Amino acid sequence: MSLDILGLMKKEQDSNVTEFVLLGLSSSWELQLFLFLLFLFFYIAIVLGNLLIVVTVQVHAHLLQSPMYYFLGHLSFIDLCLSCVTVPKMLGDFLQQSKSISFSGCLTQIYFLHFLGASEMFLLTVMAYDRYVAICNPLRYLTIMNPQLCLWLVLACWCGGFIHSIMQIILVIQLPFCGPNELDNFYCDVPQVIKLACMDTYVVEVLMIANSGLLSLVCFLVLLFSYAIILITLRTHFRQGQNKVLSTCASHLTVVSLIFMPCIFIYLRPFCSFSVDKIFSMFYTVITPMLNPLIYTLRNADMKTAMKKLRIKPCGIPLLC
């Protein structure tokens, strides 16, 4: 075993790849200008929408004390940070003919992408549990979902994301890269990077599936199971207000599907990658962070009322009226 480790270290020292070339979404200059304007609009919408939710939840004490809005504030913060990992770099590359990223920059992008992405998956699972308790055990909801438990659940989500991302970095950093160095994507991610390693990556790809693929699949199945129980409970015990809750569940499932299904498609598929992967990856790096504020607030009377009460004072500090 020690000889194998020394061999990997020797290969890493012999690597002559110091940067990766990103092929991006298109090589056409005219199309890149159009995509720049389109994704710039998306990015502005992501930042403003998620920032508005974070500020609204923080300013209004009654929202911050509610488990659902407490988790929603953290979800918006994660989406805000997640968009900053890939979109600014992508926007800059749209205006350049040469698109490249250093090896250390690539590792940094992989780390934060998986740290925030896994934290969001765990948080969405926690939010499904929160809805399950609220609907299936409403009399004890506030007792069960007390502030201490909510805090520990959020910390567990962040810690889980950290552990997951460190494992991803360990998978990549041990690999030697001798060329070629072209990534068919608009950002660095593990499936494309390990394909460029000048060694047999069978074990690494199996570990990637076990780490990222199974994580996405298990969280997705837990979410579906939770919402299935909620729907069964609604159908058998509750009649009044059923349509409103069903609408909320449908909105949440939309978000869940847009995040988990592309991740399952990309990370649970071994030993091959397709050019269409970068299209699917846009769903959880760009589209979902943009849609989350709309999905979670458009049909939410409490959030819309709280947002209307926000006023921006000349000093720039949002306060209650």
CATH topology: Rhopdopsin 7-helix transmembrane proteins
- Rg for CA atoms: 22 Å
Biggest beta sheet summary? 3 strands, mixed
How many angstroms does the end-to-end distance come to?
66 Å
Q: Please, what is the CATH homologous superfamily?
A: Rhodopsin 7-helix transmembrane proteins
- Total tally of structural domains: 1
Low confidence ranges: 1-14, 313-321
User: Which CATH class?
Assistant: Mainly Alpha
What is the averaged pLDDT score? 83
Structural class, judged by helices and strands?
A: mainly alpha
Total number of strands: 5
* Principal-axes shape call: globular
Tell me the series of helices and strands, N- to C-terminal: HEHHHEHHHEHHHHHEE
Description:
With 321 residues, the protein is mainly α. It has one domain (28-309): Up-down Bundle (Rhopdopsin 7-helix transmembrane proteins). It is 74% helix and 5% strand. It has 12 helices and 5 strands. The chain has helices at 2-14, 29-59, 61-64, 67-94, 103-136, 141-144, 147-173, 190-194, 202-237, 242-267, 277-297, 301-308, and strands spanning 19-22, 100-102, 182-183, 310-312, 318-320. It has a 3-stranded mixed beta sheet with strand order 2-1-3. A two-stranded antiparallel sheet has the order 4-5. Helix 10 packs antiparallel against helix 11 (277-297). It is globular and about 60 Å long. This is Olfactory receptor. Belongs to the G-protein coupled receptor 1 family. The chain crosses the membrane at residues 33-57, 69-91, 111-129, 149-173, 214-234, 246-267, 279-298. GO terms for molecular function: G protein-coupled receptor activity; olfactory receptor activity. Pfam families: 7tm_4.
